[in-house]
Amino acid sequence: PELRIVRQGAMESVNEMHHELTRQEGLWAHIAGFSALVAIILSVSHIYNHWRYNRHEIKWCTLRMLLIVPLYATDAWVCLFVEGNPNKWTILLTAGREVYEAVVLTSFVQFLLMALGNEEDTLKPAKGMAERLLSHQPQHYNLLKIWDLIGLRVPYSPGPGFVGGVLIGLLQYVGAMLIFLVLRIFIWCSFDTLGDASKKNVDSFCTGLKGMSCGIAMYNLILLGFNLEYAEKTKDKAEEISLRNKFLCIKGIVFFTFLQTFVLKLAVKFDELPLLMGDSARMTPEEVADTMQNFLLCLELLLFAFWHWNAYPVNEFNKWAAKSRILQALVESKNRSAASVKELEDAIEMGETYGLRADEVVVSYKNWCQADKEVRLNVEKGDGQNPITLERLDAFHTMMEDKPIKVHLQDTLMCYAKRCLQALKNSDAAMPNTEEHFGHKCTIKFHASSTGIEAIRNLPRVPLCCGVHHMVQDIIELRELSKTSKKAVETLEKEGYSEQSKQSVFDMFDLDKNGSLDKFEVHLLMIATGEISRGEDVDCQFAKWDKDQDFTISREEW
Fold first, then answer.
1. How would DSSP label each residue in 16-33?
2. Fewer CB within 10 A of the terminal residue: the chain, N end or C end?
């Protein structure tokens, strides 16, 4: 009788423990579900705003990146409820989630190419970034300097060699994740027939493949990001778009997912994983690790949903889109039709909406006196080039003390477009001269000649889909470009610039054999002739040679 009583009490204790564990499991699942639901709502609203209000084509890359939060949150939440299911749906769900990391990676690379390699719309994005990095020697910065300490240097040459090599290092991750997906599907299809040892071996191979490939991809991506932040022609733009902030809030999800998976697998291997979810009769240690991973991911995605709102503002690139639309409207305005006038008016209105100014603001002289400090500082340096004296400056202060000053806040293209609109409305007026507004200044980013604008309109754009095959084409073109450019530079250095005729130099650096030199080819020529080392600016020199402002140097111009 005593033994029966003890056995009955033990069974009641086990039942109470089972109910308590089940209750706690449901509580954790509801907490994770609430966090995931809020993250999905925040992210979907952010995606909708980008889809509706972002006017630049870069939004398609952004949308694919932002989709990571709702997809991951939904996947992780569903996995919490189907964990331990005999059909092993979590294998497929987790594999699909991890494969989407490759989509996000390619989208982020396309984002960088468009944002930092295609600002002027005069070159294809990959070639444009190669041109910007042509005079920059790739180096290890910050955390990557540890590779220099052990004697490993950057294995890429400047320009197309660097950009092409980085794209290869990133694209291999796509191939690795496709193999990963196939192996995961194989495990799911033959789960009941495979032995435990075989399943562990395949699972270990999948983990190792993903870890090694992810490491290579992250190295190349971080290397590209640091060099874009330090290169002379990209650092200002990288700071303007908050490159590091964008990188961390996207790659942070991938990094935390990978790190948590690795730590939990180690805990399972060394039997250090506490049984926090469910009882051992229903869930194996591996399933407990997966459940903990999904629970943590639901909580973390709420943080990243807020972060994405800050890192990827909806109107960030709308000013670029407005300039492109104004340029297209200027081309169409040549026929002086009523429709073209209306389109130009709408384009100007769009530019004003997104911050392009072509007006003047009146301020009081007292508020403007802060600029006097800089003027006085330049005068006191005594460089002999400034005719202003301190006495004349003081007299100017006395004369202007109570008078207002008109401060012009203008965008050059916007001013030109407004003058064109006035000329179009006055049928007898001639169109304003572009050189009066643009000239050949190095800082001009958009030219208003019809040939140049039509060249922009006919330029191949980054695809709206994932675009892996276009990345492959970019890699092939960049590697060929690297070989031909290296050969051209070596030939010129060997034979000497003075020994070559004008036509032979032109033909030598016309790498794509299209009868003209684009900005990349001009930049390469200036490196080969030593003009870069003498301090000549590529943008300024290119603008001087480009007489007809069509973004290329023709044989006649050369």
1. HHHHHHHHHHHHHHHHHH
2. N
